[in-house]
Amino acid sequence: MEEKKVKLPELKIGKLIAKVPIVQGGMAIRLSTAKLASAVANEGGIGLIAASGMPFEELRSEIKLARKLSPAGIIGINVMVAAREFRGIVATAIEEGIDLIVAGAGFSRDMFALGKESGTPIVPIVSSAKLAKISQSLGAAAVVVEGAEAGGHLGTNRSSREIVPEVRAAVDLPVIGAGGVLHGEDIAGMLRLGANGVQMGSRFAASVEANSSDELKKVYLRANKPEDFVLVHSPVGLPGQAIRTPFSEKILLEKAPKPEVCDACLKKCSHKYCIIRALTRAQQGDVETGLVFSGRRMQEIHEILSVKEIFAYLRRETDAIPE
């Protein structure tokens, strides 16, 4: 008898249908721009532009460029609810005809009304069944369920593998599992737990198309032991998962330099250090005084691949898994 193979399902969010159930995590600041988002969209996944910290005009031009590079693909934005300009960023993206809005680092009831007016799917990032149910009642089109394995701001210390089945039982929405998804087996595992798709950040952060300096990509490849990863406290008011660097060491010791000037980029900020500038410094290649957010499984990534190569190996891996 012929062995049945795992077939990756399509991912439906509202009227959108992604041929491959993979959402590329929106990684700020400026790691996920049009080049990365369009490359993922062209492979049949959902590409996200990281909009936090982007002036409105820059966001407009990134969305236009992504559309030009992927005319038929699905392009969304990822934005931090904690950003002071959150509402303006969402409104700007909707004006530009963005396909969907993914929102994390906080929760906003207001965004659902914006989405309803324009018919734009709103997809909050949640870390509990309770918040998933609230999202559904407010009109969310889907939820991204993020666990403690993820990089960046975290809303829980529990594994996404524990939370996804709870969310699946609580809502009728598409559920997208996030955190520690790297290989075909991880995707198949999330689908078995009841997810309709997955979100992957770290694997795409270490891609040719990620808009980060070569120095930053070298830091990803050097982080290959558990002790290379630390949880730092972010001025946003949440823990953040990062790679151990001189700057993250300073944060842990509470010796990170306080901002000399403040752009008032967050609704609430502890002002212990400037997170946007720290992330930007790393993105531009200053990894000594920059903050490098990353999921813990980055330690399993040993080469920088193109998005096309990443999708090809994920297909090969999932094809090899018996159903």
From TrEMBL:
Record InterPro entries: Aldolase_TIM (IPR013785), NMO (IPR004136)
Example of a GO MF term: dioxygenase activity
Keywords: Dioxygenase, Flavoprotein, FMN, Oxidoreductase
Protein's job: Nitronate monooxygenase that uses molecular oxygen to catalyze the oxidative denitrification of alkyl nitronates. Acts on propionate 3-nitronate (P3N), the presumed physiological substrate. Probably functions in the detoxification of P3N, a metabolic poison produced by plants and fungi as a defense mechanism.
Protein name (record): Probable nitronate monooxygenase
Species name: Anaeroglobus geminatus F0357
Positions in coiled-coil regions: none
